[in-house]
Specification:
The protein is α/β, with parallel strands linked by helices. It has six helices and five strands; from the N terminus they run αβαβααββααβ. It has a five-stranded mixed sheet, sandwiched between helices. The N and C termini lie close together (5 Å).
Amino acid sequence: MNLAFQMLGIKREELYIANIVKCRPPGNRNPEEDEANACLNYLRNQVLLVKPEIIVLLGSVALKNILGKEYGITASRGKWIERKGIKYMPTWHPAALLRDESKKIDFINDLKLVFSVPRSHFLMAQMCQGDAY
């Protein structure tokens, strides 16, 4: 992700990265529903404090836990979704880029879309998976 930021001229200080879960599930697996639910109020408070205009949802876990289980990352990535005055951009989780390099172009294009929009505050939400971010 740092390389993508460099390519696009984005400074880490320009954004806030938050995780769906605040501790890594055993075996670095996706969190169970109760594990994600236990952390969602903390994430909601982070959003209230940061007041982002745009939230980038990194991967399926972030997408489903924030916008709803009916969303799929493959169908939703790269498309703006607006709710309660916040614009959401779902895209691939950085760990997915390590498994499938063909997704890197989509990821970069999605970030280009995000950073082409004038904004003052923006947040990236993801499920923590190792040191991929």
